[in-house]
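User: I'm writing a tutorial on reading structure tokens. Could you give me a worked example: one chain, its sequence, then its tokens, then a sentence or two explaining what the tokens reveal?
Assistant: Sure. Here is the example chain.
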Amino acid sequence: QVQFVESGGGLVKPGGSLGLSCVVSGITFRLYTTAWYRQAPGKQRELVAVITGSGSTTYADSVKGRFTISRDNAENTVSLQMNSLKPEDTAVYYCHVRWATLQYWGQGTQVTVSS
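And here are its predicted structure tokens:
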């Protein structure tokens, strides 16, 4: 079965940085488009960043220039480097993989930006 190991969340002060990592097993990882989503309390889940198997990236306007998504197909890993964090970045961050009609979600990791 598909398994996710997400790590890297935590508490950081405004202006700080955090890195998230997601290791996925049980799929042919290189075929899948991978992404990070987030969901803040009382809000809908939203797309943060996407990276395809070939490395093309897309970012939400709210994180452009601050966040960087990357992947390592050899290690079945997708990462999200988050810089210049703001309180409004506080949310549960979810790893997501998709290929054709198949999609799977990680369990989520909490990121809290607060002084």
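What the tokens reveal: The mean pLDDT is 97. The radius of gyration is 13 Å.
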